[in-house]
Amino acid sequence: MANKITDMSKIRKVIKFHCSGKSKLFISNYLSLSRNTVKKYISLFEVLALPFDVINQKTDAELETLFSQNTVESISPKLQTLYNFFPQMERELKKVGVTVRHMWEKYIAANPDGLRSSQFSHYYKIWSKRVNPVMHMNHKAGDKMYVDYAGKTLCIIDKETGEIKEVQFFVAILGASQYTYAEASMSQKKEDFVTSVENAMRFFEGTPAAIVPDNLKSAVIQSSRFEPTINETLADLAEHYQTTILPARAYKPRDKSLVEGAVKILYRRIYVNLKDTKFFNLEELNQQIWDLLDSHNNRKLTGRPYSRLELFLEDEQEKLRPLPQERFEIKYQSFATVMQNGHVQLSQDKNYYSVPYQYLKKKAKLLYTKTTVEIYHKYNRIAIHTRNYKPYVYNTNPDHLASTHQFVAQWSASRFIDWASNIDACVGEYIVQIIESRNHPEQAYKSCLGILTFEKKVGKQRLINACKRALDFRIYSFKTIQNILENNLDSIDFEQEQEQELPSHNNIRGKHYFN
Q: Would the pLDDT of 73 be above 50?
């Protein structure tokens, strides 16, 4: 009977005998099949270019799809030549600039009596569907957001220099409703990419369960079929928005066919309307993009009575997770060793931040944003500071210093003056005179400390008397107070000084006495 489908078990045997080297005549006689039928299935097997083990593992239904009369035709020599050309053509089409038309011209040059271009394209589509089956993807509401950059760039003009700067065209689309977001950004670097992804989620007013990017470096550090390495900044964004990153497989554009299709549509509806317009900053360009994007999202879908926006509002918006109140801040990282003075250097700003003194000479990791600097040691945060952009400045938390260092860190002219004034006004006056007698206040700190500690050693009243006597002598130093106390000069009444057998003022004030 014409067009009768051969039993699948016989097809398996035809291919098995062919692979074992049996002749077509033997196979025809053994299986009670005509030689033309045997030749047809052997030709189809060769065109499919599948090993026998793969064919043998397929079910009867799958074999019927491959070999049924409804999807294949008898192979003529001309058609066989064409099918033999297709594997090479498929590889060539992956190269930039190569089209089906170019390949037909190459084919017809080698085969002048070959098929014309329309038939050539028709058979290539049939062959391609057989060897490259496509998985239909069902998109659930709120499940995935696909993101990608368009291949063609836009541009802005610098008003001052007239320089033309290329800008990237970012596209994001929700799987179920095909609701689309687009914007221009200065580059595809991770800072711009992460900002664009965040802007898309803010536009959709919700967070999808997963974000599907391409394998660009801003998203995937190292691609892998099984476990790709996600860029740390993008992973931080996903954690902030409580979503996940599912990179598309490398060299598998069908994994993100939605966004690829959206890019093609936006080329026609947005890109074409912008390419001849001059823009002088990114804000102007994006405003024009968003105006055209609104028109795109409100346009009815082909063959459907609703638009992308209507579908989004009715089916997908409520499935998205709520957005966090705060926007994401990009964290940068740096590594440093804690210095002997208890600080680490942030090389980006060339300044220093303190850590607890227990971590001296330890390795530390710095995570910093526009506003804060966090310091980690072995995954534990040991310090946090407000970021200071002024270079060569030490940002010190007193609690991080050892107890002795904390005391020294609190030294200041005002602290010593207040300490002395609390003892007595004349002690405060003497400390002021010591500080003012030095070229730099810090030169007097140790002298001030030594004088004020005499309160514990000799008592408050003796220190007060010693400072009064030293003020009268107008000699301002630690040794002056020390010599007065050692020689008990603080205990003599100033009014009876002339009646005592004591060194004169001139002798007392002499350097040989106090120095």
A: no
